[in-house]
Amino acid sequence: MSTSWVTVALAAAATLTGCTVEHGVELEIDTSAPISCVDDEGDPLVARVFRPPHNAQDVLYVFDFVRTPTVPRCRPTTIVDECLVAGCEAIPSARVCLRIPRERIPQLSAEVLDTFVLSDLVEGSPLLASDAPERTVAVRLTVVLDGSAEPPCPPEGGTLDRLPRFDEERLVGCGYSCPVVLEEESVIEIDLDPVVAGAVCGPRYVEQCALVGLAAP
Predict the structure, then answer these.
(1) In this structure, are residues 7 and 22 in contact, taking their beta carbons and an 8 Å threshold?
(2) H or E element at residue 27
(3) How do beta strands 20-30 and 187-190 pair?
(4) What is the CA radius of gyration of the chain?
(5) 1, 43, 153, 164: least CB-packed within 10 angstroms?
(6) pTM, two decimal places
(7) 8-state DSSP, 165
(8) Of 28, 30, 21, nearest in space to 118 by CA
(9) Domain residue spans in the chain?
(10) Is there a contact between 127 and 156 (Cβ–Cβ < 8 Å)?
């Protein structure tokens, strides 16, 4: 399996010593296959990166920590369905974005779009979080094109008080990790391809996945 690695630094309280220690967690993004979600015409959503009207925008990897009231199974579609019923909360102050500048994104023809993996463009091991949520959370990765009227990412060095809703026409992909207590884990996996049992990943799934835990407009 080909993977991109991002390092998550988590501040976890050491109960025996009363000290705060840094607990490193590796976030593994599965890049063994491209994002297979398609739009209503059957074109891959990743084609939005290369086609007007958004083909001059940077691509954003938006990471959210989503509190889950239950511990649903790990399948991304199950987490989305469970959150729609039970209610989940994405933590505004914990959102972090990684930006892929437009100049780093190759111009690809339609013939090779089905083999293109955005995760391969992620460089380095940036700090994703410095304060781990203590409750059970699922880590969500939303891939979205920049340029929304209300920017989805916090200002440099800052945090958000509320999470704006994504512009649905700019969404490219969305996936979840298994629900975990972060300080108890060393590796977390996210798969951006949620297709199971022959089901097709369409724009409605990606929109639902990206909007879980966000306040109503």
Answers:
(1) no
(2) strand 20-30
(3) parallel
(4) 17
(5) 1
(6) 0.83
(7) P
(8) 30
(9) 34-117+133-184+199-211
(10) no
